[in-house]
Structures are given as structure tokens and as C-alpha cells.
Amino acid sequence: MSACIYEELCRIAGERFVQCGEPMSRHTTFRVGGPAEYFVAPDRESLPGVTAFCKTNDIPCLIIGNGSNLLCGDGGVEGVVVEVGKRMSDIQINGTRVTAEAGALLSAIAAKAAAAGLTGFEFAAGIPGSIGGAAVMNAGAYGGEMRDVLTEAEVLTEDGEICTFPADDLQLSYRHSVIPEKQYIVLRLSLELQRGVQEDIYAYMAELKEKRVSKQPLEYPSAGSTFKRPEGYFAGKLIEDAGLKGFSRGGAQVSEKHSGFVINTGHATAEDIRMLMAHVQQTVREKYGVTLEPEVKFIGSF
Fold first, then answer.
1. pLDDT value at position 87?
2. What's the confidence (pLDDT) of residue 227?
3. 241, HSE (Cβ side, Cα atoms, 13 Å)
4. What is the pLDDT of residues 153-178, one digit of tens each?
5. Taking a C-beta distance cutoff of 8 angstroms, is the pair 126, 134 a contact?
6. By C-alpha distance, which of 204, 188, 210 is closest to 114?
């Protein structure tokens, strides 16, 4: 059956875009993770065929973007991993409206918007993810969120239909949307920005970049902020106050630069990271009675 699966995926998406046993460490910003049984990078035309094939044959199918918010287990991922990436990354600007395919990187969209003199998306310039993933979790930084600019989403439904919804229907809130609950796959998003002074836009982007470089451990693989912000607290401060700044397990470490980040110091396994996160959660809960909820999504076998 495995040969048949591979052959059918190649027929649908093209042999160049199908891999067997592809290391997920190549597709997550943590740079850890075992092999995907099948790894497919479809374009917009072949994506529905890939997902329909998986559904018809009861093959597990996992959709990922840039892998910037994922921790993949060392045991890898059973079934098919579908990467919505470079082959679905077109960006178009018409007036103050920006339309981007789900695989477009936030940094690329911010750069194109700035070049067109559009403001409102500067907050996303340094987030290392794709816009599809950003919509799924209502990504945000420095006071801005996707819900501030998102107007419309085109998605592939669980039944294989392509539908367009206004942003309000996605119920965007802090690090949440109904996209995963309804098992939508984001295809394209529309943003509404404002006209701005290009010099000011670039200056603000540079200011935010400097903040990131000075305060975040960008020199190490990570998934950004590891935990969601608990109501009334800041995760990083709780972790630091608990004495965990710099605490490590194997190759995973609570960043000495920013305690809200768990980093891969170079030789971490997914299990190192998972166990360190669990230790942080337990310690903070015992000391402060606060339960830290992971912002990172766990996939695959641990």
C-alpha cells in the first residue's frame, strides 16, 4: 500500500514535490523532529486532490505552514504532512488591499506592503511564519494582531469545498481562531491596510527589528514565545522569577536573554524540549499557582 500511496501522491502533486521519510527538522524553526512518512509540497491546484486522497483512504493528513509554532516528536509523523509553503506564496496589492496566498511569509508581505507605502502590518515583519499559520492562531506582536488587518479568508473545507468567509466569522481572539476547530485549510487571505509615509513605515520596522534583536534569542532555533500569556501575568517574568532563566535539559534551554523562549542550543531533541517545557509548567504552577499553556503545538510521535 505504501508504494501505491507514494505513486498517487506523485501523480497528484508531481514527483518533485513528494518525499518519503523527510526529516521534519528541516521544516520547523526548532530544527528538531523525526521523519514524515510522506511529505508533500502542493500548489493551489493540487492541494485539494492531496487532501481528498488522504480522506478517502483514511490516511492521516497534517497541514503545516512555515513550522514556526510546532514541536515535532523525534518519532516523526505518520501519514502525510502537507506543507503550504513556497508554491502557495503569491502576494498581490491593489490600492490598500493586500491579498496573499497562505504560504506567503509574513516578512515578505510586510516588506511588499512597506514598498507600496502601506502601514498597519509592520508588527508582523519579524514573525518567522506564514500568513496562513498566522491566521490560524491570530498571531501578533508589539500591539498588533492579525485580526486588526484581516478582512477575508478563502479556505478549503473538510468536505473539499472552497469557501470565502469574512474575518468576523473566524472568531479571532488571543492566539485562537475557529480554523482548526472546523478543519479549514487556509488558501488565501485579504488584508486592509492604510496609506502611510514610507519613510515612517521603514523607520518603525527598523525600530521593531532592533527590539527583537536586543531582547529575543534570534541566534538560536526556537518557536518564538513558548507559552501563551496568562491573564494578568507575563509568562517570561513568571519563568524568570521562578529561577528558571538559563535552566536546561539536554540541548534545550530556557533562554538567558528572554525567559519566555525555550531554545535549541544546537543538539536538542524534541524530547529535551518537551521535558523542559513540562518542568517549567510544573515549577511555575507550584510557585505561583499559574498554569502556563503552551503556545507551541505538539505534532508527531514523542
1. 97
2. 97
3. 12
4. 999 999 999 999 999 999 999 999 99
5. no
6. 204
pLDDT at 1 (0 to 100): 59
> Given CA atoms 183, 189, 193, 198 in this order, what sign does their dihedral have?
positive
Average pLDDT of the chain is: 97
Reading the block at residue 96, the C-alpha cell is 490598500
**Residue 220 is placed in which grid cell?**
538560536
**Residue at grid coordinates 518519532:** 75
DSSP-derived pairing of the beta strands 297-299 and 262-264: unpaired
DSSP the chain: -HHHHHHHHHHHH-GGGEEEEEEGGGSSTT----EEEEEE---TTTHHHHHHHHHHTT--EEEESS-TTEEE-TT-EEEEEEE--GGG--EEEETTEEEEETTSBHHHHHHHHHHTTEES-GGGTT--SBHHHHHHTT-EETTEEGGGTEEEEEEE-TTS-EEEEEGGGG--BTTB-STTTTT-EEEEEEEE-EE--HHHHHHHHHHHHHHHHHHS-TTS-B-SS-BPPPTTS-HHHHHHHTT-TT-EETTEEE-SS-TT-EEE-SS--HHHHHHHHHHHHHHHHHHHS-PPPBSSEEES--
Mean pLDDT of 238-247: 98
pLDDT level of residue 3 (50, 70, 90 thresholds): confident
**What pLDDT shows up at residue 268?**
98
Please identify every residue annotated as catalytic: 175, 225, 295
Grid coordinates representing 123?
508588527
